[in-house]
Amino acid sequence: MRSIFVRLHRWFGVGTALFLFVSGLTGAIIAWNQELDALLNPEFYYAHSAAPALTALELANRVEAADPRLRVIYLPLGIVPGRTLQMRVQARPDPATGKPYVLDFNQIAVDPGTGIIQGRRDWGALSLKRLNLMPFLYQFHYTLYLPTTGSGIAIGVWLLGIVGIVWLFDSVIALVLAFPSFKTWRKSFEFRVRRGGYTLAFDLHRSGGVWIWGLLCVIALTSISMNLERPVMRPIVSLFSSLTPEPESNLELLAAQPAGTAILSRERIVELATAAGHRMKLNAEPGATFEIASLHLYGVGYFEPGGLYADGRLGNAWIYWDARTGREMGGTVPGQGTAGDIFLQAQFPLHSGRLFGLPGRILVSLMGVMVALLSATGLVIWFKKLKARRSASRRMKTGKSALIQ
Length: 405
Known about the structure:
Oligomer: single chain
Radius of gyration: 26 Å
Structural class: alpha+beta
Number of helices: 12
Order of helices and strands: HHHHEEEEHHHHHEEEEHHH
Strand content: 5-15%
Strand order of the largest sheet: 4-3-2-1-5-6-7-8
Helix content: 40-55%
């Protein structure tokens, strides 16, 4: 059985090493996504003027009026003093052609005192320019920039999700292999630093993995949730706990409406969201709105200005509305719902380390480096043993040839 596990670990490791190396390093960096982005691009984060801030809703209306080609689809409602208001935008259809206008940006940074757009960028563009670097790394971490098929399957997302599944299984195999004998269990925790070279690489791979094995499993499991929540994680979790249906699956959103049915304004949605938040006794006012036009859906998040990531918590509350009727379509309140709901709520906070605040993010960064190190040392061990196997094979062939002669 051990020989089978050795072979499985070898090929699982070789097959996932490069992906895990890249994911580990990029994950270590994007744990500090906003801080590094602000450091690289201060003009995108810090407002030029010190004028009293307009409301976010007024700023969004001004942006849309100034450029009729676009509409704001994500709008933070709280303004942090001295900071820009970063909005996500989408092209409107051109009345002449029916096709969307061509925009070379999807995110803008607005001075909240003047309404002037300080910066524009195509968030997630395949670019290593300073303005695009952090969004590039963030997108690369989750998608590898692989294409989406005509049927809507994101190849990179699926690939990394499958890598996560293999990694989780391989982690169990690795733990079994790390303890070949009960009597010598202490060796599986040792690092023979003085011997260096291959011996140290082997210990870093084996013992390093043993010391952080539990954390590796958490990251592997949550990576599956990040990439394959709907097709994989939700069906598995539903075997053990009921799950609250997602708002996007509500059939009312797909129901036909009378021709000319108007879409409610952001202002009206914020009014509804404020009343709903008070009724539900949420601990924050509406903090952002987003719109999914194809589903006629508005979402509103509840958090303080700048609190999108909800460090130290299970996340923020998000409530959804039918953009045509104003009917509430459900939502997520951290810590509420079934056991399965709460388990899924915890996946991103655990994966990013934000569930434990600053110490958690530091730990996730260190874990990213360790994942890359384990992948690299695993390849070193594989190459070393591959070379040894080939040398043994050549010696065997040479011996056979000598016997024949």
